[in-house]
Amino acid sequence: MRYRTLGSTGVRVSSLCLGAMMFGRWGNADHDDAIGIIRTALDAGVNIIDTADVYSGGESEVIVGKAIAGRRDDVVLATKVSSPMGSGPNELGASRRWITRACEESLRRLGTDHIDLYQVHRPDPDTDVDETLGALSDLVRAGKIRYAGSSTFSPSAIVEAQWTAERRSRERFVCEQPPYSLLVRGVEADVLPTCEAYRMGVLVWSPLAGGWLSGRWHRGADELSSRRTRTMPFRTTAAHYDMDVPANQAKLDAATELADLAAESGLTLIQLALAFVTTHPAVTAAIIGPRTAAHLASQLAAADVDLDDAVLDRIDRIVPPGTDVNPEDASYAAAVLTDPTRRRRRRTTG
To answer: What DSSP element (H or E) covers 12?
Structure first.
C-alpha cells in the first residue's frame, strides 16, 4: 500500500480510502460481514475510512465504530455532516446549531471521542460559510475533530471558504471530496487545480463511476437492457442507467473501449480506473466502496498499479481531459440553477 500526505496536514493516508456507504441497510446489512471487510482492508494497509451520518441513517457509522474498536489510533477516521437526518426543519445543513448536535451524535455512533476529518457533505446555500467554519473551529478547539473538509463543492465555494477562513481566523477546509473517474473528468478543469493551489488534500468518490467501470458494463453484456435502474442514494437511478439516454450510450461506448485498453495492458478495468484517478498529482486517495469481500479484493489489487504515459494518452483519446461523458454525473448543481426562485427577481406592486 502506498501512503501520501493529506494536503498540508502532515497526516499520511493510504492511496485507497475505504468508503463505508455500502455498510448497513443501503448495501450489506450483515454487521459481522461488514466488520470483517473493514478489518481486512485495515490488515491490507488501508488506514483511512470515510463514512457519513446519513449513510443508512447512521448505521454505517455504528458498523465502522465496531470494526475499529481496539484499533482507533491506527485509523484516520472521516465522516460527514449536512445531509438530512430526520424530518425536522433543522436536522440538516451546515448551521452551527446542527453541526454541533450532529457531531455529538456521530461521535456516539462511532464510539470515539474524536473524528479526524469532519466534512461538510454538500454546500448549504442558506448558511453563511463563516458560521459553518466558526462551528467547525470550535469543534477543533474542543478536541472533538482534528480537521475540517468539504465534499462536492464548486471551485468558487472552495475559494470562498479559504478566503473566509483566512479573513476570519477560522480553521480552513484541508480536504475536498469530489466525484472523479475515467468517465467523470470535469473536475480536472477547475476543482483539482483549485485544491492544488490551496494545498488541499483530495479524496475522490465514485472512481468506478457508480458501477460503470466495474467491468460488467460493456457492449454485448447480458445484463444490459433498455431501462436499467438501481437503488442508489443521492442519484436519479433511471436517468443514470437508462440506455435510451444518448449520454449513457456514450458512456457505454467509452466503458467498452476502456475495458479493451485494460485488457491490452494486462489489467482489470477496476485496476485501470483506480490507478487512473490516483495518478493525478492533486489526488490523495480514491474512495473505494465495497459491499462484499470479493469487491474489496478486486479493488485492493489496484493499490500498487502504475500507468505509463502511453496508456494515459490512450485514455485521453477515449475520454478527453476535463470531460464528463454524461454531464449529469457531475452530481451537484448549485441551488441557483435548480431553484428558480433564486434567479428570478420577485415582483412588487404599488
So the answer is: strand 12-14
The radius of gyration of the chain's CA atoms, rounded to the nearest angstrom, is: 20
With CA atoms as reference, report the closest residue to 204 among 187, 184, 221, 179.
Answer: 179
**pLDDT tens-digit series, residues 30-88:** 999 999 999 999 999 999 999 999 999 999 999 999 999 999 999 999 999 999 999 99
What CA–CA distance (Å, rounded) separates 64 from 38? 8
CA dihedral of residues 80, 84, 85, 86 (deg, nearest 10): 170
The position carrying cell 476543482 is 191
What pLDDT is attached to residue 350? 58
**Cβ-count burial of 30 within 10 angstroms (0-12 exposed, 13-18 middle, 19+ buried)?**
middle
Rounded CA separation 39/124 (Å)? 34
55 noted as active-site residue: yes
Which residue among the candidates 55, 118, 180, 198 is catalytic per the annotation?
55
Residue 226: band (very low, low, confident or very high) from pLDDT cuts 50, 70, 90: very low
End-to-end Cα distance, the chain: 69
